[in-house]
Amino acid sequence: MKPTSWAYTVQNKWKSARASAVLLGFALILLASASSAFAHAVTEGDKGYILEIYGVHIVPFIYLGAKHMVTGYDHLLFLFGVVFFLYRMQHVALYVSLFALGHSTTMLLGVYLNWNVNAYLIDAIIGLSVVYKALDNMGAYQRWFGFQPNTKAATLIFGLFHGLGLATKILEYDVAPDGLLVNLIAFNVGVELGQIVALALILIAMGFWRKTEGSWKHAYTANVVMMSLGFMLIGLQLTGYFVA
Q1: Integer Cα distance of 225 and 131 in angstroms
Q2: What is the pTM of this model?
Q3: 3-state class (DSSP) for residue 11
Q4: How many Å apart are CA 34 and CA 175, to the nearest integer?
Q5: Nearest to 77 by CA among 238, 240, 225
Q6: For 23-50, what is each residue's pLDDT tens digit?
Q7: 38: number of Cβ within 10 Å
């Protein structure tokens, strides 16, 4: 039986509200993470552990790396933007691999070579990467400049900055030089494992969202929310830079 016009309208509005709730829920999760961990923050307990240990500790550093990734709201926002319009797993794997290559390279080199970069400025650039990806998803560059930037190159380049952000935080806690390389590799393995877990959760949530009738209607809104959060990250980091 065909629903009445009124019932059909109510049904569509209900589906639209459910789609909006999914987006809002995801944004609130990211904001909750932001409130508990200022970009790349390490908890006091983890900080104390890093300062006390000496020598090779593979499993603890894997755990610390995984924990850092799944609570890293800036990384999660960027990953969310990267996979937003990717539907095939081979495409997801390609872009995530480029991101992983970028942040693994600068994280390892940054700590091992003791690159001294201001953490606030790096994290502001990471916030910029979120804004960039949101605008890319909204087709802004094609409208504004008449061309589409290379998304693979952008993912790799911003991955380099994300890894440098990780390195700046690790350097703050003066990891013991004995066993440093092995511990860094273990930390990076943990980061990649955490990224897989976080990505799986993002893809599951997006899979449910894409099945809703209003998902395409809210795609633009979702990226506006992501862009706004990116601007918030930039503002927080620049404020920290000027008042610290």
Answers
A1: 10
A2: 0.79
A3: helix
A4: 25
A5: 225
A6: 555 554 555 444 444 445 556 566 666 7
A7: 13
